[in-house]
Amino acid sequence: xxxxxxxxxxxxxxxxxxxxxxxxxxxxxxxxxxxxxxxxxxxxxxxxxxxxxxxxxxxxxxxxxxxxxxxxxxxxxxxxxxxxxxxxxxxxxxxxxxxxxxxxxxxxxxxxxxxxxxxxxxxxxxxxxxxxxxxxxxxxxxxxxxxxxxxxxxxxxxxxxxxxxxxxxxxxxxxxxxxxxxxxxxxxxxxxxxxxxxxxxxxxxxxxxxxxxxxxxxxxxxxxxxxxxxxxxxxxxxxxxxxxxxxxxxxxxxxxxxxxxxxxxxxxxxxxxxxxxxxxxxxxxxxxxxxxxxxxxxxxxxxxxxxxxxxxxxxxxxxxxxxxxxxxxxxxxxxxxxxxxxxxxxxxxxxxxxxxxxxxxxxxxxxxxxxxxxxxxxxxxxxxxxxxxx
Length: 390
Fold this sequence. Notes:
Layout: E1 5-11, H1 21-31, E2 35-42, E3 46-53, H2 64-76, E4 90-95, H3 107-120, E5 122-127, E6 140-143, H4 152-162, E7 166-168, H5 171-178, H6 180-189, E8 197-201, E9 217-225, E10 228-233, H7 236-246, E11 252-257, E12 263-270, E13 273-281, E14 303-306, H8 313-324, E15 330-338, E16 341-349, H9 364-389
Parallel strand pairs: 4-5, 4-6, 6-7
Antiparallel strand pairs: 1-2, 2-3, 8-11, 9-10, 9-11, 12-13, 12-15, 13-14, 15-16
């Protein structure tokens, strides 16, 4: 860069300078040549002065290693393996893990998402954690892999959001849903009923802190998800033994009263409105929906999907209010209704959506509603950006 001039090198849609990552992609779509030098000059604003196609001999020697890497990525991508016979409005990446044992969506559901995306105007590509470098090429990211703050899913979400993509699950939803202490405080402050709860600290725990709770009790790690890291104790001796174990993994442990029920309500919430409703029944001879310790293939309880108009109004209202405290994304709110009182058990980002289960009532419309939400978010963002720059 020299004063009012700058030259940007674009190799297979990418730049060796991370600051120009998005600009390089846009320039590539504009000129569609594998290797380019684009010179800009600034008068009142930056304008393209000259576009020069490059041969390999004219590539900066310092860039050669990166150019080879970009070329490998370019020619290995599925999206370039066949021509597009349809003009798509936007590009969608769906993040999956083909090796995940209990993914949030089964293969049939994933194909249903792809079909719905195509209908709504998305070109869709399934990506894995290996495709991180391609994120900036998309307009939206939809995560269908179990999320965690401590792994690549959160990194994908943060990076995609920073790159200007529309993201479900967005990074703050992942953070807030993974923090059960935050959830409990947020719900309590907003007068939403939850099981009686005590947060125990590794450094200050005293047995008297649980004296007002009645056994059995449920213990949770603050970052537990989908019943993992959640255990039940029936006696003070079991409590002390389990706390010793959990305090080796976390400085804080959540202790809640156990609220037995035949099933939990799961209300899917999108854009702060109810999307679907299910009854998740407890696994056979177990106190949870999923029996993680069972080797039996049938270690899930039954799932019954209910039309929203048949769900008690208090359940819907409480679920939407609880999810709205997290954000405006896609959530699964778990609730129990006992003695005509609704209690929120937890709010999950990245809720399960499987073929024949959560989609039983809405069928294809469930997938289409989620895709339309992504489209709407893209267009709202672009209208805001246009308004700001006018």
